[in-house]
Amino acid sequence: MDTMDRPIDPTFLRRQRGKRIAYAVVGVAALLWLSVWLPSWIRPALDPDRIRTAQVQWGAVEETITASGTVVPQFEQIIFSPINTRLVRILQKPGAMLQQGQPIVELDLNAARLDVEKRAEELALKQNRRTQLELDERKKLSDLDTRWKLKNLEFQRFKTRTAQLRELQGFGAVSEEELSQAHLQEQRAEIELQQLEEDRRNLVESTQAQLEALQLEMNILEREVEEARRRLERAHIRADRDGVLTAIAPEVGASISQGQEIARIADLSSFRVDVTVSDIHARRLQIGLWVRSRINEEEYVKGHIARILPTVEGGVIQLEVELEDSAHALLRPNQRVDAYIVTARKDRALRLKRGPFISGREGLHEVFVVRGQTGVKTEVRIGIANFEYYEVEEGLIEGDEVIISDVKDYLHLDEVQIK
């Protein structure tokens, strides 16, 4: 029989079967052991040196709207050109500290001076015309008065003669025709006397009307002369108050139109904050709301909304905030600040320091509360919030320590190790 066809030793087979069974038992035991201990080995853990925690405490909580602000001078004077002219010389540069009355630029004033002189000459001509009218009136009145006196004498003479002839007629010494002729002369003289009186009244009224019209023209010219002189005076561009020059007109030689801005002077002794905020908060905004503006990491200035501009541009509302300490030493022109508009406040509430562990605002959120070396996931209800604190309405008590670092990647777990 061929050697390849010999039967296998039964003892060898039993030994091999025993080895396979032993290997299977060891494998099953190892799997059981790993199933028990491996989860504890691979459970996620947080490094305590790389997370931040905060305790739940009682305190005040404000609800705020976050906005951006710019520090601007409380008072800024804009100087406009009162005339059409040309810039001759720039005497001060932006950033210069100015004192009241100090010249800033020099304008070409020749045309303005000629305008004053022209209007003054027109006024002088009107004044001369008035004087001439008054003289003419006095002369004509004098002539009329003389003629009236002469005519009155003539009238009195005719009147006396008529009375005498009427007496003589009673004696038959005067004819009816002669008496009628004398009476006619008396009536004619009386009518002429009345006409002279009417001429005098007409002359006075006519002259008075001309004088009144002329006086109106003179009043208008006087105002024009005064205004031209004021424009000429204002064209000497000077600082009306102490401050810093923040802007200046175009280059030397440039044409300047009446009403064109020439310079800006800022009073740096007091400031306000101009705030821009999204119009989605429009209904929550009102005059008088308190605003806290953060100058740096530690310094804030408090103020209130003094004005809400009526126009909305690009979905942004502009506010003016009046500061309690408008002369704060750290305030600078055009300084950017974070502004927090306070829309609600609770003086006593459970609060938790703000952090990235919560996304969103009011409502239910899941956080990890520190229990020994374990962070236990806990559902809490958040109320009002600001840039510093969340209000805790439910789920936590005073003294609870909460992980306030970003732990969103662990929220699928009920617990997380801290080691």
Short structural summary:
The protein is an alpha+beta fold and 419 residues long. Helix content is 37%, strand content 34%. The strands form 3 sheets. A 6-stranded antiparallel barrel has the order 3-9-12-11-10-13.
Q: What order do the helices and strands come in, and which of them pair?
A:
Blueprint: H1 10-42, E1 45-46, E2 53-55, E3 57-80, E4 85-90, E5 97-98, E6 105-107, H2 110-170, H3 176-234, E7 243-247, E8 255-256, E9 261-278, E10 290-294, E11 300-313, E12 316-323, E13 336-353, E14 363-371, E15 374-385, E16 389-394, E17 401-403, E18 415-418
Parallel strand pairs: 1-18
Antiparallel strand pairs: 2-17, 3-9, 3-13, 4-6, 4-8, 5-7, 7-9, 9-12, 10-11, 10-13, 11-12, 13-16, 14-15, 15-16, 15-18
Q: What is the spatial order of strands in the main beta sheet?
A: 3-9-12-11-10-13
Give the low-confidence spans. 36-41
Instruction: Give the distance, in angstroms, between the N- and C-terminal Cα atoms.
Output: 73 Å
* Strand proportion: 25-35%
Estimated helix fraction: 25-40%
Please tell me about this protein's structure.
- The chain has 3 helices and 18 strands.
- It starts with 9 loop residues before the first helix and ends with a strand.
- A hairpin with a 3-residue loop joins strand 15 (374-385) and strand 16.
- Strands 3-9-12-11-10-13 form a 6-stranded antiparallel barrel. It has a 3-stranded antiparallel beta sheet with strand order 6-4-8, with no helix packed on it. A two-stranded antiparallel ribbon has the order 2-17.
- It has 419 residues and is an alpha+beta fold.
- It is rod-shaped, with a radius of gyration of 53 Å.
- It is 37% helix and 34% strand.
- Residues 36-41 have low confidence and may be disordered.
